[in-house]
Please model this.
Amino acid sequence: MAHKSNTLLTEPLPMPARRQALHETIRLHLGYLLLGLMSLTVTLLAFPIRALLPRVMSKRIGRRLVTLMTRRYLRFLVLMGACRFDLSELDALRDAPPMIIAPNHPCLLDALMILSRLPGAACIMKAELVNSVFYGAGARLAGYIRNTPLRTMVQLAVDDLQQGGHLLLFPEGTRTTRFPVGPLQGTTGLIAKKAGVSVQTVFIETSSGFLGKGWPLLQAPKMPITYRVRLGKRFDPPQHTAHFVSELEKYFQTELAHAQLPGFPVSPPP
Model:
């Protein structure tokens, strides 16, 4: 009986399943290739734009360029059958007053989804990404903010918000390490308090663990992957940072613990 079970475990996949796995692997590598080419394009455009234009203008162009590229990238993922997206609720924030956009962070595509709909938003990024060959020039052109040192990050974020922009900040500080949301850092409350702005919670729901914490980059997921972004509660500017972060974390845990992702029809992003 044990010998029979081992034989079953080593049997090759049926032809349809093998074909599906091959298609998913091809889509995975095409997605990475296009992302690399788009990042290179932004890098090549960033140098002359920064050199020739005033900083305020070049930053505005940089953010719109990032939005254009990310929107086209997500559209490509939809057209080749890799992903489905419902990002429509983000459009309500485009003309909203200055605020912190605070999503959960299940995967590496999260920032791309948010920025594809909010062309005026700044983003707090890990310092190694801002310094990287592929993403650094574009990030600096758009005026995105390094997450270190802390004091400088907070001040730059407050300055950007006071200039009328939105700030994309993941309260977990990294991709989610425990379900449904990881421990939240105090940075969100601190910046919101100093800038006197509200915090708009955003929930990112996905049908796959693809590109989550610990997911191997070359492991193809089952496709298409479904993503939905929905708006949560908008918190007033906090008075007490520690109390606010505790309240925010409980709110994320409650909302995400009961989240259900339906199979919805989604057409390519416009």
